[in-house]
Design a protein that fits this description.
This protein is an alpha+beta fold and 135 residues long. The protein has 2 helices and 6 strands, in the order βββββαβα. The protein is globular and about 40 Å long.
Length: 135
């Protein structure tokens, strides 16, 4: 399955207490929401996760990517969760990209336990994320 074309605009904002970093990400191919919806990928360093708050029809839910540090310079990308009504829309790809960009920014290496993140890395060779992976 080919990845959908995504357009990313990422802005690092000032860190808030608990070291939460918020990234504004525009995804033009996100078909459930309006075409110009800005999704925010939040990196919560205290809880070791990336998340996106999603608004659906009368409810609010979150997509989450969880990780843990296995050493000072290594992490394990454990899992991604996307609510069923938002699956197949590129939300997990946004979370995966944010996590991989975190590895680059912090000069970290990663084990990948999550099948989706493994797939994302394999299907985006131009971003050179494979150099960050420990097999």
């Amino acid at each position: 399955m080919a990845l959908r074309k995504l357009i990313f605009r990422v802005y690092a904002l000032n860190s808030t207490p608990h070291s939460v970093k918020v990234l504004n990400t525009h995804m033009s191919a996100f078909s459930v929401l309006s075409p110009n919806t800005d999704l925010r990928v939040k990196h919560d360093r205290h809880n070791l996760c990336f998340s996106i708050n999603l608004d659906g029809e009368g409810y609010q839910d979150s997509a989450v990517l969880r990780y843990k540090f296995t050493s000072k310079k290594e992490v394990d990308l454990l899992s991604t969760y996307v609510p069923e009504s938002f699956r197949g829309k590129g939300v997990a790809a946004l979370l995966s990209k944010a996590a991989m960009d975190f590895l680059v920014e912090e000069n970290l290496k990663a084990h990948i336990s999550c099948w989706y993140i493994k797939k994302y890395v394999e299907e985006t060779p131009l971003l050179c994320y494979k150099d960050l992976i420990i097999f």
